[in-house]
Amino acid sequence: EPEVTQTPSHQVTQMGQEVILRCVPISNHLYFYWYRQILGQKVEFLVSFYNNEISEKSEIFDDQFSVERPDGSNFTLKIRSTKLEDSAMYFCASSDAGMNTEAFFGQGTRLTVV
Amino acid sequence: AQSVTQLDSQVPVFEEAPVELRCNYSSSVSVYLFWYVQYPNQGLQLLLKYLSGSTLVKGINGFEAEFNKSQTSFHLRKPSVHISDTAEYFCAVTPRAGKSTFGDGTTLTVKP
Predict the structure, then answer these.
(1) Within 10 Å of residue A56's Cβ, how many Cβ atoms?
(2) Binning pLDDT at 50, 70 and 90, where does residue A88 land?
(3) Tens-digit pLDDT profile for residues A35-76
(4) Exposed, middle or buried: residue A9 (CB in 10 Å: 0-12, 13-18, 19+)?
(5) Backbone angles phi, psi at B60, to 5 degrees
(6) Shortest Cα distance from A4 to chain B (angstroms)?
(7) Of A25, A26, A15, nearest to A85 (Cα)?
(8) Partners of B45 in the β-ladder
(9) Using CB atoms and an 8 Å cut-off, which of residues 41-100 of chain A contact chain B?
């Protein structure tokens, strides 16, 4: 079964550093998403991406965040200057535009900002 | 916009007992419904989903859920739980080609 893959599984970074979280969505999918889960809390939507542009973003997704699809397979989330409160699990998801559309989630990247 | 309410934040239950985790939702458009399980320090694992068709859906690990459109509910059930079912469970709704909205989660603790 096709799956969404995320790398790395765990990343530790120093406050103020830039991080890039990488995702490989399912190959024929057209919609891409990033979600965040702070430890012990629920999963929150960050951003959706379609047709090479952001289609929706939450208030969490401020100017420190950006997304990119640099080639035909990767989908990245960049945090320009990490803060302690950015420590969380970040999930990537993708979906197609078919009738029974569901989002497939990756296993997540745990980001720890120290 | 969508919202999801998981009515129980914590559900303690003894091993081999039945369990029901409750989920209500609201949405102005048709949505798909999902239950995910998350074990400590791990990612989301899809338990089951309702996209269309039969309102009773069966998932992995012996779980099932029933979609009730009139009550806007999608409760998760298992007739006999195991210690290994101890985890966090999330209900989520997704419109077609849209973002997923998650509930706050229910912590299921299975005691021996």
Answers:
(1) 14
(2) very high
(3) 999 998 999 999 999 989 999 999 999 999 999 998 878 999
(4) exposed
(5) -80, 165
(6) 12
(7) A15
(8) B37
(9) 41-45, 48, 50, 56, 89, 91, 93, 95, 97, 99-100
